[in-house]
Each structure stands twice: as C-alpha cells, then as structure tokens.
Write a structure and sequence with these properties.
There is one protein chain. By secondary structure, the protein is α+β, with helices and mostly antiparallel strands. Helix 3 packs antiparallel against helix 8 and helix 6 packs antiparallel against helix 7. Strand 5 and strand 6 form a beta hairpin. It is built from 16 helices and 14 strands. The N and C termini lie far apart (47 Å). It is 51% helix and 13% strand. The strands form five sheets. A five-stranded mixed beta sheet has the order 1-2-10-7-3. A three-stranded antiparallel beta sheet has the order 4-14-11. The chain has one domain: Cytochrome P450 (Cytochrome p450, Orthogonal Bundle).
C-alpha cells in the first residue's frame, strides 16, 4: 500500500487510526505510524527497531552493505567515516559549485522552450554530486545515468512487491543489471584511478580510500557501496524536490512574485553565494514547505527485532513498522490547512510553533539523512539561481501525478515552459 499511488486508500486507513494502525499485507504484519512522538520513539530505539530485511534485500543489489543499508550496530562507525564529507566546513565550499552548475544549465534554456523539468534538474544535481563527492566535472552521459538511477528505484519497488531472485532474466532484473553495469563501471573506474594516483582530492572518495575500519582500509567493494549510496540518493531526491518547488511556484503566482522580488532585491543579476542564503529567507521557506508537501523519503521502514511496544500498542518481533512521513506532514492538527502551499509556515516564528517531531523530511535519530546540510544548501541556492534567470509555467496538457517508489517522483514528465527573466 505504501509503495502504490493510491493516496485515497492511504488517507482512508490513517483517517480511522491517525496515530497508529496495524494492517496485513499478505503474510506480513505492518504497523503504520503517523504520530510525531511515536515516530521519534521508533527512530531512536535502534536496538528494538532496525532496518527491514525486506527492504534491504531488495535494495542490496544496488547499495550493497554500505551506509544506507548497514544494520544499526555497525552503522555508527561507518557513518563516522563518511560524516566529515558533509560537515559544515566542507559543505560550505560546495556553494559556488551549486550556483555555477545551476546557472550554466539555465543559461541554455531558451525562451519558450518546453522542458521535462525533472530530467533537466537531475542533470544539474548529478553534476553537483559528481563534483563535490568525486571531484569530477562530468560523470558521463547525464541522460543515461538518470535512466540508470530510475531503473534501480523501479527494481526496488517491484522486488519488494514480488521478491523473486535477481538472477532470473525478468525484464526488471535485466534493466537493473544494465543500470548497475553503467553505474558500477563509473565508480570502480574512479576508485582504480584514485588508488593509482595516490592524491588526496579532499572529497568523499579520498576519505573512503584513506579510511580505516577496525585497523584496516576499506576494500574496493566497501567503497563502491558507500559511493553508490551517495551518488544515487544524493542527487535524485534534491532534483525532484526542486522540480516540485518550481511546479508549486508556477501554480501559485503570488508566491512566485514574492520569491522573484526577494531574489532580484538581494542578488540583482550576480550569482548567489553562501553568504546570500541568510538574506534569502523566503527562498529557504519555499524549499522547506516543498519538502513538507512532497517529502522525498515519504516512508521510513523499520522492523521490530524483539517483542516491544509503541506507546501502549504491543508490537511483535518481526512486524514491520513504517513511519508514514507523508501522512504526518499532511495532518491538520500538525499543519493547519495541510494541502495549502504556504511558505510562511516556515518563518522563524511559525516554524518554532510546529510540533516537535512533526516535520521529518530528513528522518530523525542516529540514522537521519547524512546529506541534510548539503540538501539545505543545494536546494535553496539552486532555486534562487533558477528563479533569477527564468520563470517557469506548466505546459499545456501537463499535470502532477505522483509515483511512490522509495522516494516520490512525478508519474509523468513534468513539462514546463521557459520564460527568460535575465540574460
């Protein structure tokens, strides 16, 4: 149910049991949680609730045993190895890369051109993640890479619903194998070149190559798994969050006018810098509200490792526990008029009044998104850069229909027409 597009079914289930309910999916027992306190409780009790084998098995061909899927026990040590690449001091250096790549891409968009905005933004964020994580200006054919990433997410959804051996020559398995051949080729080639160079580039790959775990360096396979997680998850979520933001601006002209005024007043025609973010509060608010309406990680699945409780509700060992972030972000008791796009929810005064734990676009607890700081720099900076150069309107015949994989995407190409604002 949580990996389908039937939001009506999802809404009906949670309407009857807004905090927590138990449903059966074939032989599986699933506990849906959309209560802020219960979600926080589950996400911080890492001994009793771990990553779900059903999800990790389906994602393992893509992500292996890296940071994304590793069990809670060894997760802390692995995260310590990678965290320096995402600390403030390093992330701040990425600001120039973000604005430069976004500006370069937008400069090629012609007046009146109709874009698949999701695809266009994926090319930008793929370049950003390639540069800041692997010090490469280009990872390869942007279109082919985007299709490969899509194939991995599609496979996870199908494999979760129909867990058949990945070696079977089924269409979705064959698509996955082609995708991984491309992605693995890029990553292993980078690893091989860096080992031969012996030069520290100061990026994630250099950190992994020099890291020690239990006194030993990481193997190529271990490095590949962590690099794959950053490459795939690190660009896809930001790209579609930006796509949703631009769609919302196109369908809310007063909000668009307000963000354009802010960007023009602060930046004029010069590119945004890290220092400008403090002076672009409404731009940041627009991005935050987009993440509320369309949280990339719309569910956070776990599995009970022992008999336990959530609140007063008994949970048996082996039951799936799914934090339903989408539903929680759309609860009227947490966010009044939740279907409205209202960036003013995130003024400093209003944001302080949001119930603690009700807003979880990056998860919570020790496994919260490691790329949170990068996303909150990249998203608003790229948004400001694009708003500065172009105004986008929804193309005729285009509407937003959502596709729920492990992340949220538009089901159909999100086609938008370009009007240039500044050359």
């Amino acid at each position: 149910m949580l990996l389908t597009n039937d939001l009506g079914l999802r809404a009906r289930v949670i309407q009857q049991h807004p905090d927590l309910c138990r449903v059966h999916a074939g032989p599986l027992t699933v506990v849906l949680v959309a209560n802020k306190d219960y979600c926080q409780d589950v996400l911080t009790r890492t001994v009793e609730f771990d990553k779900t084998p059903a999800v990790t098995i389906t994602a393992r061909p893509t992500f292996g045993t890296g940071i994304l899927l590793i069990a809670n026990g060894p997760h802390r040590a692995r995260r310590r190895l990678i965290q320096p690449a995402f600390n403030h001091s390093r992330v701040d250096h990425y600001a120039g890369t973000v604005s430069a790549y976004a500006a370069e891409a937008a400069s090629h968009w012609r007046d009146g051109q109709v874009l698949d905005i999701g695809e266009a933004l994926t090319r930008i964020t793929m370049r950003v993640i390639g540069k800041v994580m692997f010090d490469l200006d280009h990872l390869g054919d942007d279109s082919a890479l985007g299709q490969a990433v899509t194939a991995t997410f599609e496979h996870m959804k199908i494999a979760f619903l129909l867990p058949l051996p990945v070696a079977w020559p089924l269409p979705h398995n064959l698509r996955l194998q082609r995708a991984l051949t491309l992605l693995d080729g890029i990553i292993y080639d980078m690893i091989d070149k860096r080992r031969k160079e012996g030069v520290d580039h100061g990026d994630l790959l250099s950190m992994l190559l020099t890291a020690n775990e239990n006194g030993e360096g990481l193997s190529d396979h271990q490095i590949r798994d962590d690099a794959m997680a950053i490459l795939v998850a690190g660009h896809e979520t930001t790209a579609y969050s930006l796509a949703f933001a631009l769609y919302l601006l196109a369908t809310h002209p007063l909000v668009r006018q307000r963000i354009q005024h802010e960007v023009d007043s602060v930046l004029g025609t010069r590119p945004p810098t890290l220092a400008d973010l403090a002076h672009l509060p409404y731009t940041v608010q627009v991005f935050k509200e987009t993440l509320r309406l369309y949280p990339a990680a719309h569910i956070l699945p776990r599995q009970a490792t022992q008999d336990t409780t959530i609140g007063d509700f008994a949970v048996k060992k082996g039951w799936f526990v799914v934090m339903d972030v989408w539903t929680m972000h759309h609860r009227p008791d947490y966010f009044p008029h939740p279907e409205q796009f209202d960036p003013d929810r995130f003024t400093p005064e209003n944001e302080a009044c949001i119930p603690r734990g009700a807003y979880l676009p990056f998860g919570s607890g020790p496994r919260n998104c490691i790329g949170r700081q990068l996303a909150m720099l990249e998203g608003p900076l790229a948004l400001a850069t694009l708003v500065q150069q172009v105004s986008l309107d929804v193309a005729f015949g285009t509407w937003l229909d959502l596709k729920f994989l492990l992340t949220i995407r538009p089901k159909n190409p999100l086609r938008m027409r370009v009007t240039r604002r500044h050359s």
